[in-house]
Design brief:
This protein is α+β, with helices and mostly antiparallel strands and about 260 residues long. The protein contains six helices and ten strands. The strands form three sheets. It has a five-stranded mixed sheet with strand order 4-6-7-9-8. Strands 3-5-10 form a three-stranded antiparallel sheet, covered by helices on one side. Strands 1-2 form a two-stranded antiparallel sheet. α1 packs antiparallel against α2, α2 packs parallel to α6 and α4 runs antiparallel to α6. The radius of gyration is 22 Å and the shape is globular. The N and C termini lie far apart (about 55 Å). The chain binds adenosine-5'-diphosphate (ADP). The site of adenosine-5'-diphosphate has 22 residues, from α4 and α6. It is found in: Cell membrane.
Length: about 260
């Protein structure tokens, strides 16, 4: 009893008549479902062996002084790589959950952006090791209706990218401001910037401007894909303003129905 999935388009012809075009995308839809399930299952299956490996590495760390020196030397590298794999699996699982529209029990609620952005600012500062200045600009007292965990993780991804892709001594600003028809969070940096041809593709999974460099920065290649899906679920959108060598501004634009007067 498989359902038929149709993609429909209504157009007007020269005589002002409406034309309805329907395309059967059942097979495409099914393949997409198989891809999503596959990624979700693989990520889930990788979790257990990773937990076991991490556990053993912790034991080795505790007894490092009695280990043969060759093994001891390789410990930091093994820990680094398992942590990287763990981040990747966590991000893949998060992305699968976001795609499958599973809200995992978290409902939208009233959020105070000033305190959320301050937490993110502090986390970003902890990640930064090169004297970057990260400041907060709160231009609006409005609250936002949204899922706290999801938005926190999306905006953190933007802030961490700003730290990772702008050099020492750079300035990073986290900003909350009202727009004519809604409000936005902006994450602005004065780092290396992005050439125009890359911008439309940045939210694709594993798309990277500089493959070699990005893996060294510790990202998973899924950050902006996660941001895009979180915003989609909030009926919000991501705007990216950047030019090579001119820094970058990532803007999360929230529609007016999500922006409410502050309760305090
Ligand atoms: P990751 O950072 O793990 O590679 P993301 O999806 O978060 O994955 O970002 C995709 C790519 O977009 C990065 O590899 C980088 O090339 C580019 N990028 C993201 N944020 C910035 C930024 N603030 N400045 C310059 N380039 C950026």
């Amino acid at each position: 009893d498989e359902q038929l999935v149709l993609q429909c388009q209504i157009t007007l012809n020269g005589n002002g008549e409406r034309l309805l075009m329907a395309r059967d995308i059942t097979r495409l839809h099914r393949l997409e479902q198989i891809r999503r399930d596959f990624v979700a299952n693989v990520s889930h299956e990788l979790r257990t062996p990773l937990t076991v490996l991490t556990g053993y590495l912790e034991i080795y760390q505790d007894i490092a002084e009695v280990l043969p020196s060759r093994l001891e030397c390789s410990l930091p590298q093994m820990q680094k790589q398992t942590a990287r794999m763990q981040n990747l699996v966590d991000d893949l699982l998060l992305l699968s959950r976001l795609e499958s529209n599973d809200r995992s029990g978290e409902d939208a609620r009233r959020l105070n952006l000033a305190s959320m952005l301050e937490t993110i600012r502090r986390d970003a500062e902890a990640l930064s090791d090169s004297g970057q200045r990260i400041t907060l600009e709160i231009h609006s007292t409005l609250d936002l209706m949204g899922c706290e965990q999801e938005l926190q993780s999306a905006i953190s991804n933007l802030a961490f990218n700003a730290v990772r892709y702008s050099g020492s001594g750079s300035q990073i600003v986290l900003r909350w401001r009202a727009l004519g028809d809604g409000a936005c969070v902006e994450v602005q940096d004065d780092g290396e910037g992005i050439a125009a041809i890359h911008i439309p593709r940045l939210t694709e999974r594993f798309y990277r401007v500089d493959k070699g460099r990005s893996t060294a920065t510790g990202g998973t290649g899924l950050g902006l894909a996660i941001v895009k899906h979180v915003l989609l679920r909030h009926e919000a959108r991501l705007e990216i303003d950047s030019q090579l060598g001119q820094g970058a501004t990532f803007r999360c634009v929230f529609p007016h129905q999500l922006v409410v007067a502050s309760s305090s």
